[in-house]
Amino acid sequence: MPSVPIIFSQGKGYIMKPDTEKLVEDFLAQTDDLSDEITEDVREMLGVVPFIFGVLRKRPEVFALSALADYRISRPFRDVCGEGGGRRE
Asked: What string of DSSP letters covers 16-74?
């Protein structure tokens, strides 16, 4: 049986498309380096590294995805909307 990730949605299993699987594998191959970079960026942004990072880093693929999502969400609003933070015209 091939080693293909299965995505579960509403109780049904779906096989991931090969192109998507390749993208995910390429991303996950970089999780150690990405985790280091995210940790350093957070240290610079907050002045400390949250204690939970040590626990989460034991699972680098989960840490990288979770930290990246939190990191992108916690950026100042102007980063999303451009300089000044206002609505885009």
From this structure: PPHHHHHHHHHHHTTHHHHHHHHHHHHHHHHSS--THHHHHTTSHHHHHHHHHHHHHHT
Is 55:26 a contact under the CB 8 Å cutoff? Answer: no
Each residue's pLDDT tens digit, 9-37: 555 566 778 888 888 888 888 888 888 88
Write down the pTM of the prediction. Answer: 0.55
- Residue 8 φ/ψ, nearest 5 degrees: -100, 130
Tokens read off for 71: 């990191």
Task: Please report which confidence band the pLDDT of residue 88 belongs to, taking 50, 70 and 90 as the band edges.
Answer: very low
Return the pLDDT at 54. Answer: 85
Residue 82 Rama label (left phi>0; alpha psi -120 to 50; beta): left
